[in-house]
């Protein structure tokens, strides 16, 4: 029969991956998977049961934008949509300012010592305000209920009480801050008007006393009709002038208040507000001031003479002025809102928009008030000039009367304005309402024990399986006989991994029957002799049979065993193969041709000093070289003394002559040679034997190394009988086949069952 050729071109053949392949990969990585699972799951259990519990408590708030009055300062985007308004409120709740208010309130509470925020650390150090603020902000979660104006605030803490108490405090502080902020502007206006009213009341009382004293002293009861009309008209104008001046001061104070609020958000915005205004806004402000001045001048000049038809004309003109002024104010308001939403004044939370709009509107009102005051002052000057023409005695009486009328009218108008402001302040209702206060949770939310354990289980297995497949991806070793077949090798046998623990048990049982010296010399690797009915022994007998029948037309009498690299089981294979040959009745000799690291003598418990190299150097005779073994038909030729030139000795003519002589004496000759890639010894011997066997260690032999070994043997025209896949996992995808057939063929040692195929 011709030598089966090895087709290296098949090494790139596409192999269909089956479920069996995946199962085999998982089986090979079972210890990695098990270790990964134990490690991850143990770490998860430790973390789950040693981590401090975390409790969460939640409160719900409703932001009722429609209930807040027009100048609620928390309505920073009143002209925007409601979703933006709710988003702004969420950012306010998360702000540093609210967190600081919460910390201060908690510190003043009677439960301060129960809160972890105020406990010292292991070193006895207390947290700073900034650290506590960061903790409060990190442990809160604020979400908007979908398609509602309801906000849910959740807080996490080490205890159930602290979680509930802190989140309730947070909600209350936010509600209080909202109310204070909304009422701040009106409250400042009310305080200003109250102060001005008290002052005006004192001035009115003083002017009345002065008028009375003058009338009593000069014995003047009243003024003539023309003078009285002049003084009445002048007092009305001066009262209006004084009221305008008071409201101008109020607007200036309100503007200052708004600018102070802006300083906390953008330091330079208040100082540069006049620069932010566009030229168009400035033009509108100038037009408004001009219209107000014209209206004031027209009213003061014409109102006293408007009678009958003239009165209708007067009212019509006033209505036109008011309509134009109202239109200009609306346009100013629109431009202010557009500007406040532009990138020029937008901050990260969009909290300055309404403030900017209010400041720009107030600027317009201040400009208009200034123009009105200037006009009224001009009118007052004209009336004063007329009064100067009166006699001195009448003039003094007129001045005192005018002062008293001005103070009286101003006092009445300011009283009315103050009452309106009080009503407006009282009408300011809270925009934020607490729907549900937080209650203490019954169970901690973290750690989630069941979830953590489930994740630990899944992650442990997943990590192990992932590592297994990753290792498989980068593993370039030969693992299955299919891979050898793809390379074109004839598979002589598949040898399961020897389970040394079971072999050692059998060895101890045999030692009680054998002599003490003989028992010690038996190596556990000689499983074919020690346990002839084991699956491994059956595999070696299959190897023996396949070698015998690999070439039917010619006898295979001399074979060498080699491998691509060290520690692939070639010496164990050689020892068990010759035992299997000897068990079949053949006279067999095993030659340890590894003249660099010989191990055959140690397997059989022999000395190596008188062996192959000694014979080749004519130090000993042929009979002295050949050593008997544990079996009658099996003989061993140890390596002998290690020479400095192993390759030259193996290539010598005397080596060839020795092989011819051995063929005459033995039925089967087996050479145990060193790895083919490491040295040339195996390649040299392969030219004089009948064939070579390549031992491939499953999961150990490198794919490229095996191809290289085959190339080296082909280079010297070696007949490769086939490959032997060694060390297949017992119980694995291939080892299980041996156990399956073995345990259904044998019941107990010596007993048989019906064969199953």
TrEMBL record:
<dbReference type="Pfam" id="PF13614">
    <property type="entry name" value="AAA_31"/>
</dbReference>
<keyword id="KW-0812">Transmembrane</keyword>
<dbReference type="GO" id="GO:0042802">
    <property type="term" value="F:identical protein binding"/>
</dbReference>
<dbReference type="InterPro" id="IPR050445">
    <property type="entry name" value="Bact_polysacc_biosynth/exp"/>
</dbReference>
<dbReference type="InterPro" id="IPR005702">
    <property type="entry name" value="Wzc-like_C"/>
</dbReference>
<dbReference type="GO" id="GO:0004715">
    <property type="term" value="F:non-membrane spanning protein tyrosine kinase activity"/>
</dbReference>
<keyword id="KW-0808">Transferase</keyword>
<feature type="domain" description="Polysaccharide chain length determinant N-terminal">
    <location>
        <begin position="17"/>
        <end position="105"/>
    </location>
</feature>
<dbReference type="InterPro" id="IPR025669">
    <property type="entry name" value="AAA_dom"/>
</dbReference>
<dbReference type="Pfam" id="PF02706">
    <property type="entry name" value="Wzz"/>
</dbReference>
<keyword id="KW-1003">Cell membrane</keyword>
<keyword id="KW-0067">ATP-binding</keyword>
<keyword id="KW-1133">Transmembrane helix</keyword>
<comment type="similarity">
    <text>Belongs to the CpsD/CapB family.</text>
</comment>
<comment type="similarity">
    <text>Belongs to the etk/wzc family.</text>
</comment>
<keyword id="KW-0547">Nucleotide-binding</keyword>
<keyword id="KW-0997">Cell inner membrane</keyword>
<keyword id="KW-0472">Membrane</keyword>
<dbReference type="InterPro" id="IPR003856">
    <property type="entry name" value="LPS_length_determ_N"/>
</dbReference>
<dbReference type="InterPro" id="IPR032807">
    <property type="entry name" value="GNVR"/>
</dbReference>
<feature type="transmembrane region" description="Helical">
    <location>
        <begin position="31"/>
        <end position="49"/>
    </location>
</feature>
<keyword id="KW-0829">Tyrosine-protein kinase</keyword>
<feature type="domain" description="Tyrosine-protein kinase G-rich">
    <location>
        <begin position="398"/>
        <end position="472"/>
    </location>
</feature>
<dbReference type="InterPro" id="IPR027417">
    <property type="entry name" value="P-loop_NTPase"/>
</dbReference>
<dbReference type="GO" id="GO:0005886">
    <property type="term" value="C:plasma membrane"/>
</dbReference>
<dbReference type="GO" id="GO:0005524">
    <property type="term" value="F:ATP binding"/>
</dbReference>
<feature type="domain" description="AAA">
    <location>
        <begin position="569"/>
        <end position="697"/>
    </location>
</feature>
<protein>
    <recommendedName>
        <fullName>non-specific protein-tyrosine kinase</fullName>
        <ecNumber>2.7.10.2</ecNumber>
    </recommendedName>
</protein>
<keyword id="KW-0418">Kinase</keyword>
<dbReference type="Pfam" id="PF13807">
    <property type="entry name" value="GNVR"/>
</dbReference>
């Amino acid at each position: 029969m011709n030598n089966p050729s090895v087709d290296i071109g098949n090494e790139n053949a596409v192999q269909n991956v089956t479920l069996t392949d995946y199962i085999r990969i998982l089986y090979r990585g079972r210890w990695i998977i098990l270790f990964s699972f134990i490690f991850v799951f143990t770490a998860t259990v430790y973390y789950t049961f040693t981590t401090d519990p975390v409790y969460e408590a939640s409160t719900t708030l409703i932001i009722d934008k429609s209930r807040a009055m027009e100048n609620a300062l928390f309505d920073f985007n009143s002209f925007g949509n409601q979703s933006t308004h709710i988003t702004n409120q969420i950012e306010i709740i998360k702000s540093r300012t609210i967190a600081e208010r919460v910390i201060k309130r908690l510190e003043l509470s009677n439960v301060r010592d129960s809160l972890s925020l105020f406990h010292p650390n292991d070193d006895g150090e207390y947290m700073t305000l900034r650290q506590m603020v960061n903790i409060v902000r990190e442990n809160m979660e604020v979400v908007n209920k979908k398609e509602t104006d309801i906000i849910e605030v959740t807080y996490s803490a080490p205890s159930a009480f602290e979680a509930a108490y802190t989140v309730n405090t947070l909600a209350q502080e936010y509600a209080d801050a909202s109310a204070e902020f909304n009422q701040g502007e009106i409250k400042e206006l009310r305080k200003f008007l109250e102060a001005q009213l008290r002052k005006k009341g004192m001035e009115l009382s003083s002017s009345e006393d002065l008028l009375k004293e003058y009338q009593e002293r000069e014995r003047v009861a009243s003024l003539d009709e023309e003078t009285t009309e002049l003084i009445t008209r002048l007092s009305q104008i001066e009262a209006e002038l004084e009221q305008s001046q008071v409201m101008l001061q109020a607007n200036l104070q309100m503007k200052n208040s708004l600018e102070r609020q802006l300083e906390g958000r953008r330091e330079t915005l208040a100082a540069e507000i006049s620069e932010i205004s566009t030229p168009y806004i400035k033009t509108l402000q100038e037009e408004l001031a001009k219209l107000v001045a014209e209206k004031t001048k027209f009213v003061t000049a014409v109102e006293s003479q408007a009678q009958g038809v003239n009165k209708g004309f007067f009212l019509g003109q006033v209505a036109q002025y008011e309509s134009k002024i109202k239109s200009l104010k609306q346009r100013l308001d629109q431009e202010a809102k557009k500007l406040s939403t532009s990138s020029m004044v937008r901050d990260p939370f969009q909290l300055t928009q309404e403030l900017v709009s209010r400041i720009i509107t107030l600027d317009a009102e201040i400009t208009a008030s200034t123009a009105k005051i200037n006009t009224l002052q001009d009118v007052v000057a004209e009336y004063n000039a007329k009064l100067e023409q009166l006699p001195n005695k009448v003039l003094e009486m007129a001045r005192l009367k005018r002062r008293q009328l001005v103070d009286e009218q101003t006092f009445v108008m300011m009283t009315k304005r103050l009452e309106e402001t009080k009503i407006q302040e009282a009408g300011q209702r809270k925009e934020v309402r607490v729907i549900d206060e937080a209650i203490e949770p019954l169970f901690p939310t973290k750690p989630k024990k069941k979830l953590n354990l489930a994740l630990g289980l899944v992650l442990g297995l997943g990590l192990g399986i992932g590592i297994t497949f990753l290792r498989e991806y980068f593993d370039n070793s030969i693992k299955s006989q299919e891979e050898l077949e793809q390379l074109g090798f004839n598979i002589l046998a598949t040898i399961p991994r020897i389970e040394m623990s079971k072999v050692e048990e059998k060895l101890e049982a045999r030692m009680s029957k054998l002599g003490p010296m003989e028992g010690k010399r038996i190596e556990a690797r000689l499983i074919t002799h020690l346990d002839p009915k084991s699956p491994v022994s059956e595999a070696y007998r299959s190897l023996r049979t396949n070698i015998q029948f690999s070439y039917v037309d010619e006898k295979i009498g001399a074979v060498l065993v080699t491998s691509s690299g060290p520690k692939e089981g070639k010496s164990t294979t050689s020892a068990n193969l010759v035992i299997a040959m000897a068990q079949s009745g053949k006279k067999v000799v095993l030659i340890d041709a590894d003249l660099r690291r010989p191990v055959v003598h140690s397997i059989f418990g022999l000395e190596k000093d008188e062996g192959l190299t000694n014979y080749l150097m004519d130090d000993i005779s042929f009979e002295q070289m050949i050593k008997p073994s544990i079996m009658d038909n099996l003989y061993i030729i140890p390596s002998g003394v290690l020479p400095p030139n192993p390759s030259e000795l193996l290539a010598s003519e005397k080596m060839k002559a020795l092989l011819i002589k051995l063929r005459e004496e033995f039925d089967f000759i087996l050479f145990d040679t060193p790895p083919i890639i490491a040295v040339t010894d195996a390649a040299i011997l392969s030219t004089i034997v009948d064939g070579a066997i390549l031992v491939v260690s499953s999961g150990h032999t490198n794919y490229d190394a095996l191809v290289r070994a085959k190339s080296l043997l082909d280079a010297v025209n070696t007949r490769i009988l086939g490959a032997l896949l060694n060390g297949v996992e017992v119980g694995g995808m291939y080892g299980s086949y041996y156990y399956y057939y073995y345990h259904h063929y044998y019941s107990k040692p010596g007993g048989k069952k019906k064969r199953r195929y």
